[in-house]
Fold EamA domain-containing protein.
Amino acid sequence: MKNVIYIWSVGPGLANLNLYMVLPFVTTGVIANVFGLIATTMAIHEIGASRAHALTSASPLVTAVLGNIFLGEKLTIYLWLGLIMIIFGGGTLSYRIYGKQSSQKAKRPVFGFGLALYVTIVIGTIAVLQKYGLNLGVTPLQGLFIRFGTAAILYGIYLLITRPELNIKSSYQSPDYLWASILMTGAALLFLLALARLPATLVEGLKRTAPLFTVALSAFLLRGIEEVDWQTFCLAAIIVAGAILAMIS
């Protein structure tokens, strides 16, 4: 644990950063990587994956409003139209994808929808927070290190308190989690690199096109296992059209 804190403190050239520059990424690590993941898991448990993922597809609207207020990003009619198309297509597609996998009924709908709303706000907010931090002079690699380092310290403290006997090295699932962590870290770095060059609203909107790639991979790699019908392709086309509109704004 001491080693993790030491690595966080030295980091990839963090000596030139002050607390004001570090704070946006520390905040992101806390509200997204820790409480955001917990809230996502709880929301899926309470209302089901289809409803939870469909609701969180609205996060670009949060980014658009906050980006306009705090970053001065311009919101054109093409961008608004593109975001609405992406949200509608992505939300509906997520509902169809996850709805086919589970027939789970909502256990505590009010509580579950509240959690999903929190996750939606968090997802939309972290793009603005990280863009703000990058504008202060923090590099994408530094921001990534601070965000995930903060989350790692908090998770480490949690495990030390609740499960001191846990031996991660002896877990047969450790390699799977390691590869998943590497992929998630790579995706987060690409997200920061995009934020350093593009408006936060555009980047967040394009990120919500993820269900499109699920459909594409399912159509080619999961033939005979998962069915991709014409309605799915129509929703995918709406997402593509929305992404094009957002990019030309």
